[in-house]
Amino acid sequence: METVCLLAISFVFALCSVTFVFLSPAERRAAALRLRVRKPVGLTMARSLKPLVLRWSSRVFSVELEGAPLYFGVREKLREGPASPAAFSKLQQEDRCYSLLVCSGDRIRGDRFHWELRDKLLRDLPPGSDVTSMTSFLPEEKGSLLKGYFFKSRADDSPQVEELLGDLEQRDPVLVCSYSRSEDGQQWTQCLRSAENDLLKFYVVPSEAPEHHPSVLNMINSDVFYSLDEAREVLQKCDDIIPETRSVLRMLPSRVDARRKPDFPVIVVEGLDATGKTTLTESLRDALGATLLRSPPQCLSTWRARFDREPPLIRRAFYAAGNYITAEQICQEATRSPVIVDRFWHSTAAYAIATAVTGPVSNLPHEGSEVYCWPSDLLQPSLVVLLTLDPEERKRRLRSRGLMKTDEEQELDHNKLFRLRVEEAYRRIIGPACITVDASPSADLVLQQALLLIRAKCHL
């Protein structure tokens, strides 16, 4: 065992020496300083990063610029002439760039750290760093997505940036890369600071866009939940950091039986804010003598603002839990009368998918993808009505309401691409699919359209 350890240590020092030779004088000075001041990284962390580093040149990197991802790769050797990926095309000659990729083995810790890291970077980095979202992934390999941030800095800011990065590396599950341009300005290189204190150098090369948006790789039971057990597990793991989670967990059903068919029809009304859902659901309740429920259920309203401040993984688990609590309420009420539900799983999934995926509608998971399939353990409604409305009319209605909105609802107002992604995600969900109703006419006409659908589909 001692012989093996000595051989491993010798290999690391040899690798560091070879890599060090290829660095510019400025990079050597910065590297030497960092290697002197860094504390040893734990063996557990080093072992967890080793598989990442071994396949590093197989990864694709994505930087979010102007609302859409730009892709690049890295290579140990250049097979062709110098090339500058689009993500680096607008940078100045004196700019240096950095990326931070979160690589925690603990989903809860990693997601919270990633969520808080952006605020830290915006607060502590020099002005003009242009912090933007970044990911790294192995094409078509589920679970391979790493999230992080990309930013630039001027030469004069390097000491301040290096100090911040050194602090992050000592305490947090993060991989740091620096990027610099060759003296002739034609080629960018990436320097990976690995867990063994190596400095591994790669050439930055253009990369084609993958077949699917990288967020799709980690979407199942992360951005969108497909079982009660998966949502419950996430909430259970954060009850020590979010005490309110215990109250939510107590409200969850002990088991679910999605195969049980309700005695009366269950009609869900979906749509963006200000499309007339509240007016229609209340009118349907009165017209059909039905019970009206809302999702998330009223019993969770006390904690919504608390969970809306959490990162996506925890927030989505909270709203998924709300769907299962609503499903239990539906089963109870549907033994006595028809049930009308103001939003259900379609909303939870559509907003989550549209938030995780950036850029145009074409970046969404393809139609028929498993991400659009109804959870197998969640009660299925008899009919889902999707209200649609002209965007300008919807904005006018929102202004007249003057109510507080969530971050996602505010995003709908000023981000056309996000709104289009949400609307298309609604349409692609199956089992059951949405039936569209134009909400532009008067409330009475919209009600009559909905009643015709209900009588045709549910035989009421």
Q: Which bin fits the share of residues in helices?
A: 40-55%
Query: Which structural class fits the helix and strand makeup?
Result: alpha/beta
Question: Tally of extended strands?
Answer: 13
Strand order within the widest beta sheet: 1-2-8-7-6-3-5-4
Radius of gyration: 26 Å
Distance between the termini: 76 Å
Helix and strand pattern: HHHEEEHEEHEEEHHEHEHHEHEHHHEH
What average pLDDT do the residues reach? 85
Query: Given the C-alpha coordinates, what overall shape results?
Result: elongated
By DSSP (H or I, 4+ residues per run), the number of helices equals: 15
Low-confidence stretches: 1-43
Strand portion, in percent?
15-25%
**Largest sheet: number of strands, sense, barrel closure:** 8 strands, antiparallel, barrel
Q: What's the structural blueprint in terms of helices and strands?
A:
Elements: H1 2-21, H2 25-37, H3 43-54, E1 60-65, E2 68-75, E3 96-102, H4 107-124, E4 132-137, E5 146-153, H5 158-171, E6 174-181, E7 188-193, E8 199-206, H6 228-237, H7 244-251, E9 266-271, H8 277-288, E10 291-294, H9 301-308, H10 312-333, E11 339-342, H11 345-356, E12 383-388, H12 391-401, H13 407-414, H14 416-428, E13 435-438, H15 443-458
Parallel strand pairs: 9-11, 9-12, 10-11, 12-13
Antiparallel strand pairs: 1-2, 1-4, 2-8, 3-5, 3-6, 4-5, 6-7, 7-8
